[in-house]
Amino acid sequence: MIVLKKSERVGVSIRSANKSYGTFQALDDVSLEVAAGEFVSILGPSGSGKTTFLGILGGFVQPTSGSIWLGERDITFEPPHKRDIGIVFQNYALFPHMSVAENITFPLRARRLPKSSWPEKLREALDMVELAGYEQRRIHELSGGQRQRVALARAMIFEPGLILMDEPLSALDKQLRESMQIELKRLHRKLGATIIYVTHDQREALTMSDRVAIMNKGKFVQVDTPEQLHDHPADSFVARFIGEATLLPVERAGDDTVRLGDIVLRTSHRVPQNARLHLAVHSEKLVVADGSGAAGINRLTGTVTETLYQGESIRVFLKLSSGDDLSLRLASNHTGRSQLKKPGDAITVALHPEDTIVVPEAS
Q: For the chain, how long is the longest CA-to-CA vector?
């Protein structure tokens, strides 16, 4: 089985990398430390610098300044073919005139590894991606998911310490994409390689990653675990980008309180000192108040404006008494439906202080 020993795993260090195209700064003093065997996703909107960052790691783009280290090796100016990095492209980049076996073993041929080693490595790679028996198939005979597996097998067959992935699941339909996310996590655990994964899909990044690096305007805004990013965003940009949050302007009323109109809300977290603050309310953190009046729980009153049935949940839109718009999600089971109100009905929602997140305005 293709499994990297701990001694073969390598970390990656990006140190003060800059990349400019004329007056346009694609990367702006970017630094990131990725531990050996870690799965890190680079997440951000279009034009944020994700592709340039990956290009610098792969050797396809030269940084204007800064350095890239693979373990103890400075690879800043090494050409791509000497870096021994596995790469999975968005369009798979498979050779249509070659069989599955020929595609997967191509890196072995390019590295002039002994042909006697190919059959065993091919068998292990096919077993890992569950494509045993597909050796002689042509690429056009494969489904999208199978082509993706071939691309993964090709990237892993020479046992690289680092694998780069550039939106490899974006062309798949929703159900297959979610299935492949779980498959990739399984493969990562088996192989043990360091993976840097570029995506614009936040759910994908949160599902698969040990850490996620949020990128905007050529900089990393926040690098953190999925849970920390979602529940404790660094600023309003991250809060808007991660999850289903509504941002409401608030004023600081104390170290652990903010004012939303005439309402004072308490948070379990220290309120930032910044002049412009936002309350980041995730729809799934809100619950319909049960009338018990539990002490310490924040309450917001308003009127239901619309309800949307979305399969596993029902999204309820409301206008608060402060004039702000908000939404919450109810499960579409019996309990959720019993709490559902009609447009025009008054509603009170509760927000626990632990889920009351206040963030500064992004610079």
A: 77
DSSP state of 180: H
> Is there a contact between 171 and 94 (Cβ–Cβ < 8 Å)?
no
**Distant-in-sequence, close-in-space partners of 285: CB < 8 Å, separation ≥ 6:** 351, 352, 355
Enumerate the β-bridge partners of residue 147: none
Task: For 242-253, write each residue's pLDDT tens digit.
Answer: 988 999 999 999
**Tokens encoding 107:** 């890196």
- Inform me whether the pLDDT recorded for 179 exceeds 90: no
pLDDT value at residue 3: 53
Q: How far apart are CA 318 and CA 110, in angstroms?
A: 60
Length of the chain: 363
Structure tokens at 226: 């999925």
How far apart are alpha carbons 148 and 171 in whole angstroms?
10
Domains parsed from the chain with CATH numbers: 6-229 (3.40.50.300), 262-360 (2.40.50.100)
Give CA separation, 97 vs 10, 92, 101, 151, in Å: 34, 14, 12, 15
